Amino acid sequence: MSILEVRDLSVEFTQRGGHRLRAVDSVSFDLRAGETLALVGESGSGKSTVARALCRLVAPSSGEVLLRGAPAGRRGQALRRYRREVQLVLQDPFASLNPSFSVEHHVRRPLRISGHPRARIDQRIDELLQSVNLSPPRVMAKKYPHELSGGQRQRVAIARALAPDPAVMLADEPVSMLDVSIRLEILNLLDALKRDRNLALLYITHDLATARHFSGRIMVMYRGEIVEYGPADEVILNPAHPYTQLLESAVPRAAVTRDQLTVARRARLQERKTAPPAERRELAADTGCRFRGRCPRAMDICTTHPPDFAVSAEHTARCWLHDPAGVAGRTA
Amino acid sequence: MTTMSQEPMTTASAAAGQLSARADDVVLRAEHISVEYAGAAPTRAVRNVSLELRRGEVLGIAGESGCGKSTLAYALARLLRPPASLAGGTIRFYGRDRSDPVDIMALDAAALRRFRWAKVSMVFQSAMNALNPVISVGKQFADIFIEHVPEMDRAARDERCRELLEMVGIAPDRIRSFPHELSGGMRQRVVIAMALALQPEIVIMDEPTTALDVVVQQEILDEILRLKEEIGFSVIFITHDLSLLLDISDRLAIMYAGEIVEYGYSEQVAARPSHPYTYGLLHSFPDLRADRHELRGVPGSPPDLRTTIDGCAFAPRCKFAFDPCPSIHPELRSPSHAPRLAVVPGAGQVIGPDTYSQGWGVACHLHDPRLRPAGPPAEITQPAGSPAPAAAEGDDT
What we know:
The structure holds 2 protein chains of 2 kinds.
Chain A: E1 2-14, E2 20-32, E3 36-40, H1 47-54, E4 62-67, E5 70-71, H2 76-85, E6 86-89, H3 103-113, H4 121-131, H5 137-141, H6 150-162, E7 168-172, H7 180-197, E8 200-205, H8 208-214, E9 217-222, E10 225-231, H9 232-237, H10 242-250, H11 258-274, E11 309-312, E12 315-317
Parallel strand pairs in A: 3-8, 3-9, 6-7, 7-8
Antiparallel strand pairs in A: 1-2, 1-4, 4-5, 9-10, 10-12, 11-12
Chain B: H1 11-20, E1 26-37, E2 43-54, E3 58-62, H2 69-76, E4 84-93, E5 102-103, H3 109-115, E6 120-123, H4 127-130, H5 137-148, H6 154-167, H7 184-195, E7 202-206, H8 214-231, E8 234-239, H9 242-248, E9 251-256, E10 259-265, H10 266-271, H11 276-282, E11 343-344, E12 349-350, H12 353-358, E13 361-362, H13 378-381
Parallel strand pairs in B: 3-8, 3-9, 6-7, 7-8
Antiparallel strand pairs in B: 1-2, 1-4, 4-5, 9-10, 10-13, 11-12
Helix pairs in contact in B: 5-6, 7-8
């Protein structure tokens, strides 16, 4: 069942000189209860802006967000109700917790604000800390952020997000600041919480591997657009959009030999000689496919903006290569 | 061959010496390096680490934040600043001109200035911080030459700068650009070109691609390895990203709590990690393309380096810890399963099992037949890629 429906969401920022930058361009997707949807892309692609627009930290310039079928509240009481349901976990647990307040304070505030019965708040704090494996909760509650490790801080941030009992959790690069050895603990925790609480989880990351392993579906974002959207295994193992293919091929391969790596490396260097990536042409926005300047398979038709084409039942790609009418099919 | 031994060079290094055949194979040898950060209780960030860097190789150093990997790199280039100081150890540099070894610790200030950048240069994580934002790229190159090659005139400096930019895939007319006019990847390329400006023999790279996107990261890594082949320098590559190191480094060392707990050829370590920590790190990130299975990471956190650690620093986090671990400090030794492999991957040659094991060391009691006659548990010695014991739990779709 979809909890949060996003329809043609766009976010624009005004740049110096009055130019409009469209950071998020007509993005549509839905978040389902008990499911993780991953949003992947490079820095600057607009991933975080999507999360910020969804929890109304920035105002969308157009588009619609439906929570359980009803339009998201835009102001006042309705907005507060909406925000309670849609919670955000940020990347940097060193910055997202206030150093001068205890763990308890961070979790108590959202409970108070969401009108939790006062008599039961202490008990609820303990439950929340327990649910993110911060134990013993009474001891952890009294600690301050500087006394905690990065992983523990991120657990506090998660407990705080859970406090208002949300239906949707937006996790914006929740583990990229953490050490490799503890990333999985946090991801496993988010996964378990999602299952136990039937949360709809949006997992924003640049890490394709964890995106695949922890989510049901994946969206790939490039310069504000969703260029590919589909079941996680399909998108990663059988990427349809040339950008997803590029991302996939750039992930180090542990399973091949050094000789194969060397051969692949030489081939890539040779290929790049023809189009030096460092001086890569960035195309003016709005006309045609935005990836075509970097695309190894760009064609004439790519100057026309492509619509989403179906790759399989639930899998779409915004690329002319998948046009069933075959305009591209012949040259592909 | 290498020795990264925490014991005085004994049989292992003798055998290693034979294998490497020529002493001039080694470009940097560091022995018993210890670094302390001053404080009420000094933080012993690097604890008695020895390593050899061979000519033309990429030596990867992996570990979590706070394990001492960057501190070690700074120590090797003699860049430590108070409160950090070298508490012990020697670092020798063996130049390609086969002159006498340079005792880096003994250099005076002037000699050290001449030595650094010319022989050993560094690339840091944040290119924006490494470059001066108010000075053009060309001027920053010129500064290097003015300091190190004063006889070069302006035209020659410009010419060399353009050459270097072109070498790393940047249009030579970028000589007039300022750092903010370049993308993150281009800045890191500029920093790499600067590091190579004086044709150093060693480039120490501290997380050079961590701030970059995966596509740009791959481009930069490809570029580094190409330049290494063309120009012929050695690289010490420091990162927390073990999967990246497996991709690019010839050999790697895993650091934990200021010590090297395992070293060896990248492929051998990847296939059969011998230290439980290495095993844990290798199982801390899912393989993009492999089947899904449950992954745990390494629960717990590293020890406080201000305290004395009697036994194995990893013991409190180790699920295989047994009697001696908390009390007896493990020394580097050959993994018990090392002799079973005979081929050095990637080296294109077959070497006998004994020599192979000499290039591989692990500081773990599980591999000590006196303490554990049965050898390490099958779980950590099984070849990677075999099915994980825990069955995969399906995800949400």
